[in-house]
Amino acid sequence: MLNKKNELDPLIIKKCDQYIPDSLSQTRILGELHHAIDKNIILPSENFNELGDIILDSNLGRKNKEDITVCDLTGTGVQDTAIARQTYEIAMNLKLGTNID
Q1: What's the whole-model pTM score?
Q2: Nearest Cα to 8, choosing from 37, 36, 29?
């Protein structure tokens, strides 16, 4: 088996309101989606809006604040850096977290 990392019950992919992969082709091989496909919970041909698509068109994302969203980040460097930077800026503006030198 190529991918042994599994952090979520594969049924969560089926039951959540929004499953958002950073790279659909990559999560089919390396992500949580891989395990849902492997257990025949999700069809290998099923399509999902990728994180980049949702960033460009927020209408593709959550419909309300009660939606359960699973974001499957398998590691695309540019997106990871952008997410980290945005999260850091939000935390600093809200005076959250601890600054470590």
Answers
A1: 0.73
A2: 36
